[in-house]
Design a protein that fits this description.
The protein has helices at about 10-20, 35-45, 50-55, 70-75, 95-105, 135-150, 160-185, 190-200, 200-215, 220-225, 230-250, 255-270, 275-285; strands at about 1-5, 25-30, 45-50, 60-65, 85-90, 110-115, 130, 155-160. The chain is α/β, with parallel strands linked by helices. The chain has two domains: about 1-160, NAD(P)-binding Rossmann-like Domain (Rossmann fold, 3-Layer(aba) Sandwich); about 165-285, 6-phosphogluconate dehydrogenase C-terminal fold, CATH 1.10.3660. The structure holds NADP nicotinamide-adenine-dinucleotide phosphate (NAP).
Length: about 290
């Protein structure tokens, strides 16, 4: 099976190229910057091509380009896709990329997918994938991909592109926002190095969250913030909650603080959230630092 990775010279593209090669697939990669593409060719030991050549000769096309370049790539490759071919995108947003694929790609089956891990992942085992089929043909493809991923130890969940984006607004959008605002706040303090040295697990988890976002490409985080639905409402909700808690502290209203915190604890424990597991994971994360 021949798999073309559009944007294969990028971080996620290289990750998938390396994984698919180890899995015995024939891989061909593309990218815009020639120097970067040749570097990736050498590093991975794969063939390189233009987007059009790669698509013409592939059984499966994986589109791994930034959200902001997605439509131009789809417009460029759409005259060259063929029947029996699968075109899968891995952008972190699903509504608009899936709409763009439906609008432009008329031959072949398209599918929206989102790997819920970054290029630093060591293995596919226990990694989550979200697949967003929108019709019977796409669901049949998604089922095949789910079986393929599960046979290799990963997990795959199907949902609509809309459900995906609404969940990602909280999972990615809110988490990234908290990390960026926390980084901004931390920089108001001196002696950060000393605090890092003496800090306990909770502080280490905060630094891990901040570091995991701030060390990455700002363009990617900007695209996620600007493209996910209802980000402004979610961030305003967060601001209002921050204000409420800050007021309780400002007023030194100890009883109100304890009552509200107990309410949160009970609601989280009664809800679907596996609170204990999240707590154990936090410790594992902090101990691993
Ligand atoms: N990073 C993550 O943690 C993560 C996780 C899950 C999903 N994703 C999704 O994966 C996709 C790729 O992300 P990434 O982190 O790998 O970004 P990246 O490192 O910037 O890679 C993007 C690649 O796309 C190439 N590209 C851009 N325009 C192109 C075009 N017109 N033709 C051919 N190649 C083109 C770039 O080539 P040049 O550099 O030469 O321009 C680069 O190789 C994004 O949609 C992102 O939302 C990312």
């Amino acid at each position: 099976m021949k798999i073309a990775i559009i944007g294969g010279s990028g971080k996620m593209g290289r990750w998938f190229a390396s994984f698919l090669l180890k899995d015995g697939k024939e891989v061909i990669i593309t990218g815009r910057n020639e120097k970067k593409l040749l570097e990736a060719k050498q590093q991975l030991g794969v063939e390189v091509a233009t987007n059009v050549e790669a698509v013409k000769n592939a059984d499966v096309v994986l589109v791994s380009v930034p959200i902001d370049n997605f439509e131009e790539v789809v417009e460029q490759i759409c005259p060259h896709t063929h029947s029996g071919q699968f075109i899968i995108d891995i952008t972190s947003i699903k509504v608009s990329p899936v709409e763009m694929m439906h609008k432009h790609i008329k031959t072949g089956v398209v599918l929206g997918a989102h790997p819920m891990f970054g290029p630093g992942a060591r293995d596919i085992i226990n990694q989550n994938f979200i697949l967003t089929p929108t019709n019977e043909e796409e669901t049949a493809l998604a089922q095949k991909i789910r079986e393929y991923l599960e046979a290799r130890g990963a997990r795959a969940t199907m949902m609509t592109p809309n459900e995906h984006d609404e969940m990602m607004a909280v999972i990615l959008g809110l988490s990234h926002f908290i990390a960026i605002v926390s980084a901004d706040t931390l920089l108001s303090f001196d002696r950060l190095r000393e605090m890092e040295a003496v800090g306990g697990s909770t502080y280490k988890v905060l630094l891990t969250l901040v570091g995991s976002v701030i060390s990455e490409d700002p363009e990617f985080y900007a695209s996620v913030q600007m493209n996910l639905p209802k980000m402004t409402e979610i961030e305003e909700l967060f601001q209002r909650s921050s204000e409420t808690w800050a007021n309780i502290v400002r007023n030194k209203d100890r009883q109100e603080f304890v009552n509200r915190m107990n309410i949160l604890k009970n609601r989280l424990e009664k809800g679907d959230l596996d609170f204990r597991k999240a707590y154990e994971n936090m410790y594992k994360l902090a101990e691993g630092l």
